[in-house]
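Please, structure for the following, as tokens.
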Amino acid sequence: MTRPFHLGWFLQGSSVQAWGEPWTGAIGRDWRVPELFCDIARALERACFDYVLIEDSSYVGESYGGSREIYLANGLAVPRQDPSVIATLMAAATQRIGIVPTLSTFAYPPYLLARLVATLDQVSSGRIGWNMVTGSSDYAAMNYGLPGMPEHDLRYDMADEYMGAVNALWDSWEPGAMLADTASGVLVDHTKVHAADFQGKWFSTRGPLNSGPCVQGRPVIAQAGGSARGKRFAALHADTVVASVKGVAAMRAYRDDVRAHATAQGRNPDDVKILFLVAPTLGETMEEAELRRRQRLARAEAQVPQFLAHFGKITNIDFGRYDLDTPVNQLDLHTNGHQQSLDDFKRVAGKRSLREAMLAYRGNPGSVELTGTPDAVASQMAEAMQEAGGDGFLLSLGDVSRRSVAEIADGLVPALQARGLARRAYAHAQFRDNLREF
């Protein structure tokens, strides 16, 4: 395989993630200060990553045992700062890499979101994406004065309409509307700025957008549709899709499914870049990498309650009420939250106990296991990508530090570049153009 693939970074929360990790220095231990994350963005830009995606949620978990204790004591997705603020600072610290904050449709009226994202796209010179999420937690909904979340598939019906509203606002400025003609003294051609006048069942907005046009026309849209309904939604709206499935066969099936939905909805499937989550374990030798993998698994065995608490947070299931040695296939597990994650967990679990299943699911994170020297892992990634058919990987590490980032940016990426699997330079100034380069 000689065609390069795309690389993204999945930053799990924009503030507390690196608290207490080694190789972060005093700045890394002060979760309030984003300098570590700006450094990460600079390092990944040097490695020519396509983008950094800032994952988010807007509530404190309390699914596990009906208590917030395990979430607060272990810093499980809390504290979390507003991702649009962190995205602004990361964009200011870089020049080419895409920055993708997560913003929920239930938390932002369409006009507010369209204006915020358009502003970010302007100040970054066309490098902003939007990780579009519908939300999944009743706790989050209640933080915004709502009684709870709508049913799973209904949330996507509402999101289709939401996309119509924000797209109408972004399109309210035609190309060429900005004249800035000093001879005539005219800044904007008023005939090229129109009201959106969007009226839907759930959302409405008048427009036009007063912030002016997005540099890219529209921002890059990221989405993580995993359920059948979610994949149809992603295939219609997304420029890049976050995919978390286990095994190369599942990767290929997922990609084929999304591309088929894109074609059926009149889109060029090559315009939908699917990036699979992975968490490489690197070492200078194979022996060192294997030792680090075993050490990670040993730590995971002591973290099963935390894993279950985090998984319960996104699926709205209280795993604290179950005995860890109960076979998963004997549990009646359903969710109005992340359905694909729960389905994947059940598939991995089989007849395993809850403890064993969670270790199998979270102990070896990512779509495929990647362990070895940078060159060996580059080879493993090439093989997996060739079998899956493309389009790239989204790296997500549990131990985010300057050291772990450097191992990727200055170790793994050069090995990929030597094989022609990763770009050596950005070909374009704007995010979407780089995403569609290959």
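The two ends are 13 Å apart (CA to CA). The chain has a mean pLDDT of 94.
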